[in-house]
Specification:
By secondary structure, this protein is an alpha/beta fold. It has eight helices and seven strands, in the order E-H-E-H-E-H-E-H-E-H-H-E-H-H-E. The chain is globular. The termini are far apart.
Length: about 250
């Protein structure tokens, strides 16, 4: 991990949950984390906890203009981006056939369109400077085999499938462009998260049987620490002993 010391990482959804855990872990290795989220109050609290290796920036990734202005600020003040962690996501348990158009659009913007724009800006920054880089997309097991998960999650599943394919497309483009950039998709199983609290309560899943956000943060460090000649294209993280993270609706 010494090669990443003093480098710049952008982490979306950095004010809580997995994004917060990832930010803390990166900072431990003296990586300067630019933490993005919509609420500055929470980001400032994180900055007070982590210290000098965390820079809070308010950014609504559903708004392309905010992404572009944020990257301009990063380039002006920090030179560019070396690591991008596309972590921010949203989920609605509402059925698609019962969802309003804006609800569908918000999920697609947050979970798929924003990561694509962020990856484009990060890759252009890495290409411009001729530096090594790493893009990490936090997807999920719904992006692998959603057919087996017998529970409605609206547009969450389709966007996670898309995020996984985005990683593959980026890897192809990077190979053609001969850039020194790796792309990794991390597929966590069930993780303790405020976003899924309602779901876990409904399914009556004990918190002790699912992953912690720190488990995903440590996985990020694992993929960043690979030798120059190794690229982990995809990794699935499951709670030990569960066998799989497939969930089904409880019987009546």
């Amino acid at each position: 991990m010494n090669c990443w010391s003093e480098k710049i990482a952008v982490v979306t959804g950095a004010s809580q949950g997995i994004g917060l855990a990832i930010s803390k872990e990166l900072a431990r290795y003296k990586i300067k984390v630019i933490g993005l989220a919509r609420g500055m109050v929470k980001l400032m609290e994180v900055a007070a906890t982590i210290g000098q290796y965390f820079v809070p920036l308010e950014c609504d990734i559903m708004e392309e203009d905010e992404i572009l202005s944020t990257f301009k600020l990063i380039e002006e003040n920090f030179g560019g981006v070396d690591i991008l962690v596309n972590n921010a996501a949203t989920c609605s348990l509402a059925h698609i056939m019962e969802s309003e158009e804006d609800e569908i659009e918000d999920i697609v913007k947050t979970n798929l369109i924003a990561p694509a724009i962020l990856a484009r800006k990060a890759l252009n920054s890495m290409r411009k400077r001729g530096t090594r880089g790493h893009i990490i997309n936090i997807s999920g097991t719904p992006g692998l085999y959603f057919e087996a998960e017998n529970i409605p999650m609206g547009m969450y599943g389709p966007t996670k499938y898309g995020l996984r394919v985005l990683g593959t497309v980026l890897r192809h483009e990077i190979a053609i462009s001969k850039l020194n950039v790796k792309v990794t998709t991390i597929n966590p199983g069930l993780v303790r998260s405020t976003m899924f609290t309602e779901l876990y309560n409904f399914l009556k899943i004990p918190l002790n049987d699912i992953l912690k956000d720190t488990d995903i943060a440590e996985t990020v460090i694992c993929v960043l620490a690979t030798p120059d000649t190794v690229e982990i294209s995809e990794i699935t993280v499951l709670p030990q002993g569960m066998g799989s993270s497939v969930v089904t609706l409880p019987a009546d």
